[in-house]
Design a protein that fits this description.
The chain has helices spanning 3-21, 63-66, 70-87; strands at residues 25-33, 36-44, 47-55, 92-99, 108-114. The chain is an alpha+beta fold. The longest helix is centred in the N-terminal third of the chain and has 19 residues, at 3-21. It is globular and about 35 Å long.
Length: 117
Protein backbone atom coordinates (compact mmCIF):
# COMPACT_ATOMS: atom_id res chain seq x y z
CA UNK A 1 0.00 0.00 0.00
CA UNK A 2 1.44 3.35 -1.00
CA UNK A 3 1.26 6.52 1.10
CA UNK A 4 -1.80 7.86 -0.73
CA UNK A 5 -3.69 4.58 -0.23
CA UNK A 6 -2.69 4.48 3.43
CA UNK A 7 -3.98 8.01 3.97
CA UNK A 8 -7.23 7.13 2.17
CA UNK A 9 -7.69 4.03 4.34
CA UNK A 10 -7.01 6.10 7.48
CA UNK A 11 -9.58 8.70 6.37
CA UNK A 12 -12.17 5.96 5.80
CA UNK A 13 -11.51 4.49 9.28
CA UNK A 14 -11.84 7.95 10.83
CA UNK A 15 -15.12 8.54 8.96
CA UNK A 16 -16.49 5.09 9.90
CA UNK A 17 -15.67 5.61 13.58
CA UNK A 18 -17.33 9.02 13.52
CA UNK A 19 -20.49 7.73 11.82
CA UNK A 20 -20.75 4.84 14.29
CA UNK A 21 -20.62 7.35 17.15
CA UNK A 22 -23.45 9.24 15.40
CA UNK A 23 -25.63 6.11 15.49
CA UNK A 24 -25.05 4.60 12.05
CA UNK A 25 -23.82 1.05 11.58
CA UNK A 26 -21.23 0.22 8.95
CA UNK A 27 -22.36 -2.63 6.72
CA UNK A 28 -19.54 -2.72 4.18
CA UNK A 29 -16.25 -1.03 3.30
CA UNK A 30 -15.06 -0.37 -0.26
CA UNK A 31 -17.86 -1.94 -2.29
CA UNK A 32 -16.60 -2.13 -5.88
CA UNK A 33 -18.23 -2.85 -9.20
CA UNK A 34 -17.09 -2.16 -12.73
CA UNK A 35 -17.41 1.59 -13.10
CA UNK A 36 -17.82 2.60 -9.47
CA UNK A 37 -16.92 2.23 -5.82
CA UNK A 38 -18.56 3.16 -2.54
CA UNK A 39 -16.25 3.86 0.40
CA UNK A 40 -18.75 2.98 3.13
CA UNK A 41 -22.19 1.43 3.11
CA UNK A 42 -24.03 2.18 6.34
CA UNK A 43 -27.45 1.82 7.89
CA UNK A 44 -29.30 4.65 9.56
CA UNK A 45 -32.41 2.92 10.86
CA UNK A 46 -34.05 1.38 7.79
CA UNK A 47 -32.17 3.66 5.39
CA UNK A 48 -29.12 2.47 3.49
CA UNK A 49 -26.52 5.24 3.44
CA UNK A 50 -23.86 5.27 0.73
CA UNK A 51 -20.93 7.34 1.96
CA UNK A 52 -18.17 8.95 -0.07
CA UNK A 53 -15.13 9.88 2.02
CA UNK A 54 -12.95 12.66 0.64
CA UNK A 55 -9.60 13.65 2.09
CA UNK A 56 -7.91 16.78 0.83
CA UNK A 57 -4.73 18.15 2.28
CA UNK A 58 -4.84 21.24 0.06
CA UNK A 59 -7.68 23.48 -1.07
CA UNK A 60 -6.08 24.70 -4.30
CA UNK A 61 -8.90 23.20 -6.34
CA UNK A 62 -11.82 23.94 -4.03
CA UNK A 63 -11.27 21.44 -1.24
CA UNK A 64 -12.85 18.06 -0.63
CA UNK A 65 -16.45 18.99 -1.54
CA UNK A 66 -15.45 20.36 -4.94
CA UNK A 67 -13.86 17.03 -5.83
CA UNK A 68 -17.25 15.26 -5.84
CA UNK A 69 -18.08 16.06 -9.43
CA UNK A 70 -21.13 15.03 -11.44
CA UNK A 71 -19.04 12.21 -12.93
CA UNK A 72 -18.06 10.98 -9.46
CA UNK A 73 -21.70 11.15 -8.35
CA UNK A 74 -22.77 9.08 -11.37
CA UNK A 75 -20.20 6.40 -10.47
CA UNK A 76 -21.43 6.32 -6.88
CA UNK A 77 -25.04 6.02 -8.04
CA UNK A 78 -24.10 3.17 -10.40
CA UNK A 79 -22.36 1.27 -7.59
CA UNK A 80 -25.28 1.95 -5.22
CA UNK A 81 -27.75 0.49 -7.72
CA UNK A 82 -25.64 -2.67 -7.92
CA UNK A 83 -25.46 -2.90 -4.13
CA UNK A 84 -29.23 -2.52 -3.78
CA UNK A 85 -29.88 -5.21 -6.40
CA UNK A 86 -27.61 -7.63 -4.49
CA UNK A 87 -28.82 -6.78 -0.99
CA UNK A 88 -32.41 -5.69 -1.46
CA UNK A 89 -34.09 -2.41 -2.22
CA UNK A 90 -34.39 -0.04 0.73
CA UNK A 91 -34.78 3.70 1.12
CA UNK A 92 -31.32 5.18 0.59
CA UNK A 93 -29.36 8.40 0.58
CA UNK A 94 -25.92 9.62 -0.38
CA UNK A 95 -23.76 11.23 2.28
CA UNK A 96 -20.26 12.63 2.09
CA UNK A 97 -17.65 12.86 4.80
CA UNK A 98 -15.14 15.57 4.01
CA UNK A 99 -11.76 15.84 5.68
CA UNK A 100 -9.12 18.52 5.25
CA UNK A 101 -6.60 16.35 7.08
CA UNK A 102 -6.46 13.20 9.17
CA UNK A 103 -8.00 14.95 12.13
CA UNK A 104 -11.60 14.58 13.24
CA UNK A 105 -11.69 18.31 14.02
CA UNK A 106 -11.65 18.91 10.25
CA UNK A 107 -14.43 16.38 9.54
CA UNK A 108 -17.61 17.62 7.89
CA UNK A 109 -20.57 15.24 7.43
CA UNK A 110 -22.93 16.16 4.60
CA UNK A 111 -26.18 14.21 4.90
CA UNK A 112 -28.13 13.88 1.66
CA UNK A 113 -25.23 15.45 -0.22
CA UNK A 114 -26.83 14.58 -3.57
CA UNK A 115 -29.60 12.39 -4.94
CA UNK A 116 -29.88 9.69 -7.58
CA UNK A 117 -32.69 11.55 -9.38
Amino acid sequence: MNTRQAKGAAAERLAADYLIRQGLSVVEHNFRVRGGEIDLVCRDGKTTVFVEVRLRSRSDFGGAAASITATKQARLILAARHWLVRHGETPCRFDCVLLDGLDEDTLEWLRNAFSAD
